[in-house]
Structure formats: C-alpha cells, structure tokens
C-alpha cells in the first residue's frame, strides 16, 4: 500500500455542528490521521508540550511540524512580536521597506554568507522562487537551459513547482498533471551509504544532462525521504560540477535550517557555498508564516550586471510581525550552543541503538535533533500507522515516513529545549511498544 502522504482531507461539519474527528470542517493533509486518533482539539501549548480539549498532555517530538525548535511558549519571541505589532504591523514592500525588513535581511545574510534575501510566506514559495531564479539566471546569461534536477527521495512542498521537484510524491500526483516540465531525476544508489556509487550516479547525471540543467535542488538531509543525509563527498562533488557548468546549486534548508542538525545551517557542515538557500519552518519558530530565499553574492551580482529583475512577489511576503518572530529566533540562535543540539541528538541516537541494536530489522540514524527509526522496508504501511497511533496514545507525538522501495519508519524532531531525560523517556516509550510487534522488531 502506498501511504497517501498528500491526501487532502475534505470533510464537512456534522449536522449537530459538533466536532467529530472523522467529519472535520478543516481541509488538511489527512495522512489517515483520523483513524484511531482520539486526540481532542488542541487547546494550549507549553514549551515542548501540547494539551488537548480533554486535558491530555502530549510531548511533541514532531516539534510542531518540524518548525518549533524553541517550543510553544518562548516569551522572548512573544515580546518581539508584540513590540512590532504596536510599532508597525505592515509595510508595502513594493514601494517601501521597513527598518525591520532591511535589518533582518542584513543580519541573516551575514550569518549565512549571502548577498540578498527575498521574503516569502512558506517553504513551498521559497522553492517556487528558487526554480524561477534558476531559469531567469540562465535566461539573462543567454542560455536556453530550463532543466531542474532533483532527487527521487526529496520533498519540497505542494505548490506546482515545489510538487514538480518533490520526488517522493510523484506517484500520487497524477491527477494534477501536467506538472512543470524539464524536471530531471537523479538516480539514487540502492545502498544509500555507498558514497562511491552516489558519486558515479551524480557524475553520470551531469554528463547526460548538464547542457539542459539550469539548477539542482537538494535537501542536505532528506526529511520526508526518511532522514537520509546526502554524504559530504557527494555534496562537494555536486558543488564542483555545478560551478564548472554554471548550474545553480539550490539548497533546501526549510527543515534543516536554524539549528536542527546540530549546526546553525546544514550546508555549513560541508563547507560548500550554495547559490540559493530556501528557508522557512524554524525561521519564525512556527509562530507566524514566513519563508525566505537567500541569494549568493554571485547570483546577486549577475542580476545587477545584467540589470535583470526577478518577477516574484506576494503581498504578505516579509510580513513585519513574522519578521519580528524571526528576529527573535536569531537572538536565540546567538546562544545556540547552550541547547547542545548535537550532543542531545547523539545521545538519543546512541540510546536508541543501544536498545534496538540487536535487531537487524531496525536501523536508527540522525544528525542533531533530526532522528529516524527505519522499520523493515517491506512492512505494510498500515502497520506503521498502527504503531504511530499507539505512540500517540502514550502521550508522545512523532512523525512517519513511507517511501516504497526505500524506507519506512518514524521520524523525531524534538524541540531543542528537550532534556536528555525527555529523550530517554521518549525512546523507552517507542521501544517498549515496538517490541510488541514481532513483524517489525526481529
Ligand atoms: C525540505 C522541505 N522543503 C520545503 C517544504 C515546504 O514547506 P511549506 O510546507 O512551508 O510550504 C517542506 C515542508 O515540510 C520541507 O520539509
């Protein structure tokens, strides 16, 4: 069974108007959430916990939806939001620029080493803008290249361009065809840890397609693709091939950015210099919608030299209140080391390995607080959903991945405020449950 990750659930109000989780007026990605789900409406949050209408408490290791590293009640973020709200809530970016829009862009560029920032409202929109930039960049250089390369295990969002480059959902998207054309898939090695085969595959892709490639989009660690890191050597080789062929390297840091992987931005680990960086999620700690596309100095200079423009705008892109939240996140990032994200992640991975290491059917991996537990590949996705629901019932929220042919399992994005004790207790909960499934743990 292919788990329909993107099955938008269109329900309706029941006659009585009461909330029944199987008849819901909110259109959302269902992921079969409603089956066996007895969580009431969520009514409040505190640090790493959320509470439902029955007063039940959940430890949120989904971290919102991977976007709340600093938890639900970070007063420093609230304070900056309120201050900005009282000072100036909106500024028309077509004709003006607010102090906070300017200052935040400068601050972010200094941290990530880029030359300019385009504000967006979401990760998907940042990807749209990146695809457009790749094509526009080639056009202003008088190149006819339109192709965008991506990996089959990637997920980049749900707007048309973002969907078109999201490998893992292609099989589910037929009803929406045609998607963007000139999308080119890079094969993946069967063994995702075999760096030499990865490099061979990547080199072959460039050999065959470089003439048509405007850009390549990469998540440093496939998130929805099962918490699979792209090996450093491969990333570096891609950078070299992009540079020598004048192809733009787009790094999607929507999930990995703002400290999730034990370093402020995952690309920094590899010592590479992306041409474009897509950001969202943790940028505002999930408090308000915001995204950004950051451009390298090289790309900015090319646009300036050619007197070229990028036709992209959305009214709420760069909303001042959202930027205030983002600015507070950068304040928190100044004390990033205090959260010990890398050490906590290592602790949890090692502890899970200690508990599950004797079972060949399970593998555990993680970078920082982005952790994956893979089940046997051929397990029916219904079994995964069953495990998932039971973990929820134990008061712990995690996420799942299901990529037929590649992997299937649980993903964990603990908030940075989680203690080692939280991590240990969550691991104990998951493992004690898994041990009841002889078709998963053997
Ligand atoms: C790596 C990655 N890119 C892009 C997106 C899309 O972001 P958004 O949901 O804000 O549009 C996501 C969302 O999960 C993501 O994980």
Automatic annotation (TrEMBL):
Q: Which key words tag this protein in UniProt?
A: Aminotransferase, Pyridoxal phosphate, Transferase
Spell out the InterPro entries in the cross-references.
Aminotrans_3 (IPR005814), Aminotrans_3_PPA_site (IPR049704), Class-III_PLP-dep_AT (IPR050103), PyrdxlP-dep_Trfase (IPR015424), PyrdxlP-dep_Trfase_major (IPR015421), PyrdxlP-dep_Trfase_small (IPR015422)
One Pfam family here: Aminotran_3
Q: Does the keyword Transferase apply?
A: yes
EC number(s): the record gives 2.6.-.-
Quick check: keyword Lipid metabolism in the entry? no
Q: Which cofactor does it need?
A: pyridoxal 5'-phosphate
In terms of SUPFAM superfamilies, this protein maps to: PLP-dependent transferases (SSF53383)
Name the top EC class.
Answer: transferase
Q: Which GO terms describe its molecular function?
A: identical protein binding; pyridoxal phosphate binding; transaminase activity
Please report which protein family the annotation says this sequence is part of: Belongs to the class-III pyridoxal-phosphate-dependent aminotransferase family.
The record's PANTHER family line, in alphabetical order, gives: ACETYLORNITHINE AMINOTRANSFERASE, MITOCHONDRIAL (PTHR11986:SF79), AMINOTRANSFERASE CLASS III (PTHR11986)
Q: What is this protein called?
A: Aminotransferase YhxA
Q: Which organism is it from?
A: Clostridium saccharobutylicum DSM 13864
Q: What taxonomic classification does the UniProt entry list for its organism?
A: Bacteria, Bacillati, Bacillota, Clostridia, Eubacteriales
């Amino acid at each position: 069974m292919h788990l329909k990750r993107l099955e938008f659930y269109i329900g309706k109000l029941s006659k009585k108007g009461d909330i029944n989780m199987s008849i819901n007026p909110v259109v959302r990605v269902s992921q079969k959430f409603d089956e066996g789900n007895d969580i009431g409406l969520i009514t409040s949050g505190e640090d790493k916990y959320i509470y439902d209408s029955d007063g039940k408490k959940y430890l949120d290791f989904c971290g919102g939806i991977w976007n709340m590293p600093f938890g639900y009640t970070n007063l420093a973020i609230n304070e900056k939001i309120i201050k900005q709200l009282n000072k100036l809530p909106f500024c028309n970016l077509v004709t003006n620029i607010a102090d906070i829009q300017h200052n935040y862009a400068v601050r972010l560029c200094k941290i990530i080493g880029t030359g300019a920032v385009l504000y967006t409202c979401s990760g998907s929109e940042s990807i749209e803008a990146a695809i457009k930039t790749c094509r526009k960049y080639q056009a202003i250089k008088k190149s006819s290249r339109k192709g965008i390369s991506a990996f089959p295990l990637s997920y980049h969002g749900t707007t048309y361009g973002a969907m078109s480059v999201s490998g893992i959902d292609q099989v589910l998207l037929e009803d929406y065809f045609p998607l963007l054309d000139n999308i080119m898939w890079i094969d993946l090695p069967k063994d995702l840890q075999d760096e030499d085969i990865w490099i061979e595959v990547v080199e072959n892709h460039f050999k065959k397609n470089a003439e048509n490639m405007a850009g390549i989009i990469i998540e440093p660690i496939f998130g929805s693709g099962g918490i699979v890191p792209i090996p450093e050597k491969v990333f570096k080789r891609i950078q070299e091939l992009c540079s020598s062929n004048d192809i733009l390297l787009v790094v999607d840091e929507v999930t990995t950015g703002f400290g999730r992987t034990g370093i402020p931005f995952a690309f920094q680990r590899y010592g590479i210099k992306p041409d474009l960086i897509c950001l969202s999620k943790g940028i505002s700690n999930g408090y308000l919608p915001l995204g950004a596309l950051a451009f390298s100095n090289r790309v900015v200079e090319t646009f300036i030299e050619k007197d070229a423009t990028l036709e992209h705008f959305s009214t709420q892109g760069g909303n001042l209140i959202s930027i205030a939240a983002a600015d507070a996140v950068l304040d928190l990032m100044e004390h990033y080391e205090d959260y010990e994200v890398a050490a906590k992640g290592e602790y949890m991975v090692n502890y899970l390995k200690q508990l599950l290491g004797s079972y060949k059917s399970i593998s555990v991996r993680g970078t920082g607080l982005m952790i994956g537990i893979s089940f046997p590949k051929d397990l029916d996705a219904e079994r995964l959903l069953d495990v998932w629901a039971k973990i929820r019932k134990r008061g712990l929220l995690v996420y799942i991945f299901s990529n037929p042919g590649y992997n299937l399992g649980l993903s964990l994005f603990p908030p940075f405020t989680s203690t080692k004790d939280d991590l240990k207790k969550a691991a104990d909960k998951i493992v004690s449950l898994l041990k009841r499934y002889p078709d998963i743990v053997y």
